[in-house]
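Problem 3 from the worked examples.
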Amino acid sequence: MRRMIYLVAILAAGCQGLTITGESTARLRLRIAGEDPLSKGVVKPIPDTNKMFLFIKGEAGDTVYNGLYGERPAELKVEAGNYTVNIYSHLQNLPEFDAPCWSDSKTITLAAGSVTSLAMVCRQSNGAMRLGFSPEFRAKYSAYTPEITDALGTVQYQFSEERFLYLKPGNIYVRLTPLATGQQVPLFSKLLAAKEMITINLRLLQGDSASFGGGILIDSTSNWQTDSVFIGGNDGSTKEKALTLERIREYVGLKVWLTGYIIGGDVSDDTLRFTAPFTKETYLAVAATSTERSRDKCYAVSLPLGAIRDSCSLVRFPANIGRKIWIKGTVKESYYGSPGVDPVTEIIME
């Protein structure tokens, strides 16, 4: 027996909720209620709801509606069952300037004789970052271009840029790329959450008081934060300037010195052994601290055949567990299930 779905909308400035009711004729009512953007003191405008996209899909994957909210049909005929309702301002495929994403998604069951209410709230589903550079920083790195990378890709962020770059929530990496020849310079990484609007000031360690904003601003729609990152000190170029293993993900593809502790061996994608006996001589596991036991914070390090393996193998020397270690090698994005170091050219143990 087929059910009727009626799309009825009450439009206003904001995006608060969508109410869905199921009767014997299975009625779907969408409501986007008003919200005063001036009460927030918000920099970003609330999107035009008529220009947002509405996507309704059945449990078998069949599309009931896919188009602009403002152009939805007066009624649709569907079978009783489960439906997913999505509303969004746009889909983000790459990091973008001036492109906040507003969205929500819910599932509803439409059955004869039942009444179901589904509340949806359109919130900002991506985050954003803005970089500021002190004059001393720009002078020192004038032969480089800043880059910001998220899970969707990499975008250049020019020294003169002042806009927010909208990014997919997750780990964000900021690097400097040489304009001509040379090696990339990783600067920092940041875990970005949805709705976060973060300004990062990049400064040198000494003689720098430039600012690109100040304080922490909290908005009812987004979290606005300003922070500073001081560049200098350890850069992985020598053993004395070795990077701690907390920063290993920032240096994927680069040959650097890293330091940490030997914590185990016999590594697989999701496990590793912390105590003897060990069976694998070709690698060992390291972490930033000697007590670390979380798999996603432990990293495999290859042991090339020869002097390095002869002195570092846990099969031969299980007492090496807990020793501090310095490793020179190339950081791989994935080595036994997480970032690791392979190949390795030098290892020094305390």
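Problem 4, a separate protein:
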Amino acid sequence: MPKMTLSHMEVSLVFAVVCSIVMGIVSKRTNIDRIQYGLYTFGCFIVALFGLGWLMYLGHG
């Protein structure tokens, strides 16, 4: 079985997608609300990912 190596960014994106899907499914009742909430949470994950990344980059140097 081949070994799969992912970068930190790729793993973070996979985590954001999976968490957004799960949160959309378990927290809303209608399909359109689930899709909207899933996209909203995915956007929040991405903003947090880049925001914290820049914060760590600026704080390190």
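Solution to problem 4. Residues 20-60 form one domain. The longest helix spans residues 31-60.
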